[in-house]
Amino acid sequence: DTEVTQTPKHLVMGMTNKKSLKCEQHMGHRAMYWYKQKAKKPPELMFVYSYEKLSINESVPSRFSPECPNSSLLNLHLHALQPEDSALYLCASSLSAKPDEQYFGPGTRLTVT
Amino acid sequence: QKEVEQNSGPLSVPEGAIASLNCTYSDRGSQSFFWYRQYSGKSPELIMSIYSNGDKEDGRFTAQLNKASQYVSLLIRDSQPSDSATYLCAVNSNDYKLSFGAGTTVTVRA
């Protein structure tokens, strides 16, 4: 089973709203990732968690705040976003954070109005 | 600057033909190489991983790796309309990050 789940599938939020994206995997993977993907572009890494600790932050603006409550869950808290933040947000997981196969969830399509 | 480059598309092939996708990478220390398939509006799906020089076959897919030439390719045999998608080459080096190519869009003509 290589399933990563994400909720919600779609999200529309205003620039003053606070919302959260959720990601879950039950594969025993110890590394989890957040990516952002704009149309016709490859995924762009935002954050990496390894063994529930933040190991990589790709200079992401503070209006994006990741959280890893346990080894199966990953959240991305959103606050005061801009319209240019509208994108497909992808969660992925891998067995470890070493060079390893990453499995993506279905993504959350975010629209900021 | 670590870069992954893919042959520019779109690539159009007739049904039943072989689709050939190419990818070059700049970081000679890269260790792991992946091909993802992404349908329009969907998330990337891992279809092949390759770690050592040579060929790796999985069904209609064959990945080829040549570390000396810093080159990895994907062949899709007996292409089907359901293979129409964007194919992303991804390379992983010691810093635990996947570097993606821009993708090659493949269209299989029925």
Brief characterization of the structure:
The complex is a heterodimer of chains A (113) and B (110). Chain A has strands at 4-7, 10-13, 18-25, 31-37, 44-50, 53-57, 64-70, 73-79, 87-94, 103-104, 108-112. In chain A, 36% of the residues are buried.
Please explain how this structure is put together.
The complex is a heterodimer of chains A (about 110) and B (about 110). In chain A, about 0% of the residues lie in helices and about 55% in strands. Chain A is built from no helices and eleven strands. Chain B has strands at about 5, 10-15, 20-25, 30-40, 45-50, 55-60, 60-65, 70-75, 85-90, 100, 105-110. In chain B, strands 2, 4, 5, 9, 10 and 11 form a six-stranded mixed beta sheet that branches. A five-stranded antiparallel beta sheet of chain B has the order 1-3-8-7-6, with no helix packed on it. The N and C termini of chain B lie far apart (about 40 Å). The model of chain B has no long low-confidence stretch (mean pLDDT about 95). The interface of A and B includes residues 88, 90, 103, 105 and 107 of A.
**Averaged pLDDT of chain A, please?**
94
Multimeric status of the protein: heterodimer
Radius of gyration of chain B: 13 Å
Bin the strand percentage of chain B. Answer: over 45%
Question: Level of helix content of chain A?
Answer: under 10%
Largest sheet of chain B: 6 strands, mixed
Poorly predicted parts of chain A: none
Order of helices and strands of chain A: EEEEEEEEEEE
Largest interface, with counts of residues having CB < 8 Å to the other chain, equals: A-B, 23 and 22 residues
Overall shape of chain A: it is globular
Order of helices and strands of chain B: EEEEEEEEEEE
Could you give a short account of the major beta sheet of chain A?
7 strands, mixed
What are the segments of chain B in which pLDDT stays under 50 over at least 5 consecutive residues?
Answer: none
Rg on CA atoms of chain A, Å: 13 Å
Provide the helix percentage of chain B: under 10%
Distance between the termini of chain B: 40 Å
What is the tally of helical segments of chain A? 0
Large-scale geometry of chain B: globular
